[in-house]
Amino acid sequence: MTSSHVLAAGQQNAPAAIRKTQTHRRATVPLEPYWFMAPAVIMLATVYLGPMIYAVMTSTTHWVLTEPGSETIRAGLENYKDVLGAPSFWQAVKITLLYTLTSVTLSLTLGTLLALLLDNELHFASFFRSIMLIPMVITPAVIAIFWKLLYEQEQGVLNSLLVAMGFAKVAWLGLDHAFFAMVIMDSWQNTPFFMLVILAGLQSVDSNLMDAARVDGANVFQRFRYVTLPHLVPYMLIAAAFRGIATMNDFDKIWLLTQGGPGEATTTITVYTYKIAFSSFDMGRTTAIAMIFVVIVLVASSPLLRHLFRTARRPA
Length: 316
Known about the structure:
By secondary structure, this protein is mainly alpha-helical. It has helices at residues 3-27, 32-58, 78-84, 87-119, 125-132, 134-137, 140-151, 157-164, 178-202, 207-215, 220-248, 252-257, 269-279, 283-313. Helix 9 packs across helix 11 and helix 13 (269-279) runs antiparallel to helix 14. The protein starts with a helix and ends with a helix.
């Protein structure tokens, strides 16, 4: 074979070799970033995944704190069957979902109205904005004690005002009003959060769109309906998702205000779990309730989160 034939064969094989080398280089993934991420992943797995696995294992035992050695007695799914078959559990689920829906809806509505009011150039707007943020920074225990004093039937502030105006006293923490008293307390605390988030959304509305709407003859309500509200939807969903999950987990305010009573009128799942844990000391059944509650929170919040992610992926 002559040198010209060798050169021609080399030129034909060169592109294939180059392509193979490039493919090999593309297939090689650098591992350095994963090594830097490893400590954080290990820490998160230890802090979250480890206790979750332990809780699942505990929920399948007959562990009662007053019975030494009972933590080793396996129960399988018996705890879950007992919990799901208890009418009091489903009553607590009903109260929890109704409390969350009512409180978040009321807080969102009031927060939106306050944000629209403070978005205008009003005198002392910054002062009122600071005052309205106070409930958000007060600890839940103090809020519960504060509202319990307001709701006190004999010498409470609310009933004193009603008597001064000629009305009869109201049993705010009685069977007929305790649930709504709990909702009002939670809404008072969380309305500033919605106001703050929605106010940030209002201040990021494109002024050119508002000017174009004015030029087209749109009135105030039409500008809010077709320009402002679509822009605020992601902000509302984010705030509602955060507060909805937090409200379903609310315990301290409810316990200090009503302790779940009267009867089961304000017994949410967290209060129900606490009562089971410290009345029967049944850790297996209590952990099973907690695991079911995790599933309920995920199922209840998934439509809102799905809609939020779908809105976020939508092109502007």
